[in-house]
Amino acid sequence: MNKLYNNKIRLLLVDDEEGFRMTIAKRLGKRGFVPVQASSGEECLNILGKELLDVVVLDVKMPGISGIDTLKAIKQVYKKVQVILLTGNIAVSDGIDGIKSGAFDYLTKPVEIDHLVNKIKQAFEMTRLEQEKHEQRKYRAKLEKKMIDTERLVSLGTLSTGIAHEINNPLAIINESAGFMKQVISAPEMSKYPLKEKLLMGIEKIEKSIKRARKITHQLLGHVKKQESQFCEVNLKELLCETLGLLKKELEQKNITVTRKIYDEKNILWSDPYQIRQILMNLLNNAIHAVEQNGSIILSMCEVNDNIIFEIKDNGFGIPKENLGKIFDPFFTTKSFDEGTGLGLFVVHKLLTNLKGEIEVKSILSKGTSFIIKLPRGFESEEVVKQ
Ligand SMILES: Nc1ncnc2c1ncn2[C@@H]1O[C@H](COP(=O)(O)OP(=O)(O)O)[C@@H](O)[C@H]1O
Ligand SMILES: [Mg+2]
């Protein structure tokens, strides 16, 4: 390990004997270390409160807070910092006490500088390994949660498609019967029937509820109907223009500015255009709903490692933190009964799973929301496309 590496270890040297401290600091400096210095336990804790440090070399015998008490305080608050104790050669028991209180190791004075350098490097290596382990644990936990969420949503997706299919048939029968009843009640010979108006109102309620139930089944089955659609070359830029065209009326009504930032011209992918359009529609509909009059929606697209990354960013009301984990769940909605079904994002997630894509959401309350989609280009290589 070279001086450059030593330079990266953030080191604190604590000793009340100024002469000794300076000599050690100078010698460490020659080996590439840049130690911060403190002359007491109090000063040491003060510095740790302000600066991020990796290793503390700490004298045990100091006036004021003793080295061992300083060590205990460090380990209580800054668990990741490693401490190497410096003890007098007649006070080995201090070193053992220190290890019990969480010190990485101890060295007896007078200190052999090479020995100290090695210890500092070992202590730092320990910090690094622990940090790595911590990162790995965090990453694994995140991955596991994502897998569980995806599995849950996929099985809910299969279940809900099945239910939607089953509900469509009785729904059609109810609709037909309601229509028949309306026809009968509206006939001239029924004009004197005293409950006619009440019956018509009842039928209207039935019809309204059928409409709502249909909206739900259509959303769930929208893409299923198109299943005959096959994978083909999709020009995402064109598809986006087409989808924006379908939403023209809503965009104009709210006077929303749509900005397109297309960073790559290679926006062709091998995928299912119907499913992608549905994804864009659902996300754009949400963005339109989230922004105020004169709001803005920014659409960006670029290619990274054979994936197309697509972002839909709005400056709308944003999503509260506590809702971020729920928005992909079926029937989760913050909209009124007439406005939302809570199925838009659930379907988006489901379609993206079909297309081997991914989605991520970032949101700041009152500032806006951004949905980032990753879709594989689906071509083995550029040559295959050109053939
Ligand atoms: N762009 C967005 N800005 C703010 N909130 C959003 C946005 N997109 C989705 N949401 C939140 O996620 C919920 C679920 O969305 P979705 O599944 O499309 O169902 P719906 O639009 O029918 O409510 C919405 O009700 C809303 O609370
Ligand atoms: Mg929606």
Characterize the structure shown.
The protein is of the alpha/beta class and 387 residues long. The chain has three domains: 3-111, Rossmann fold (3-Layer(aba) Sandwich), CATH 3.40.50; 147-226; 230-386, Heat Shock Protein 90. Helix content is 54%, strand content 18%. The chain is built from 13 helices and twelve strands. The protein has helices at residues 3-8, 18-30, 41-50, 67-77, 92-100, 113-186, 196-225, 236-246, 248-253, 273-290, 321-324, 344-354, 382-386, and strands at residues 11-14, 36-38, 55-59, 82-87, 105-108, 232-235, 257-262, 268-271, 296-304, 307-314, 358-364, 368-376. The strands form three sheets. A five-stranded parallel beta sheet has the order 2-1-3-4-5, with helices on both faces. The longest helix is centred in the middle third of the chain and has 74 residues, at 113-186. The protein starts with a helix and ends with a helix. The model is unreliable at 381-387 (pLDDT under 50). The structure holds adenosine-5'-diphosphate and magnesium ion. Magnesium ion (MG) binds at residues 282, 285-286, 344.
Helix content: 40-55%
Query: In one word, what is the shape?
Result: elongated
**Number of contiguous helices:** 13
Low-confidence stretches: 381-387
The topology string of helices and strands comes to HEHEHEHEHEHHEHHEEHEEHHEEH
Give a short account of the largest sheet.
Answer: 5 strands, parallel
Q: Mind telling me the CATH superfamily name of the largest domain?
A: Histidine kinase-like ATPase, C-terminal domain
Strand content: 15-25%
Chemical compounds bound to the protein = adenosine-5'-diphosphate, magnesium ion
Radius of gyration: 34 Å
Distance between the termini: 51 Å
Under the CATH scheme, the architecture of the largest domain is: 2-Layer Sandwich
Q: In order across it, which strands form the biggest sheet?
A: 2-1-3-4-5
Number of strands: 12
Tally of individual domains: 3
CATH domain class of the largest domain: Alpha Beta
Rounded mean pLDDT is 89
The secondary structure category is: alpha/beta
CATH fold-level topology of the largest domain: Heat Shock Protein 90
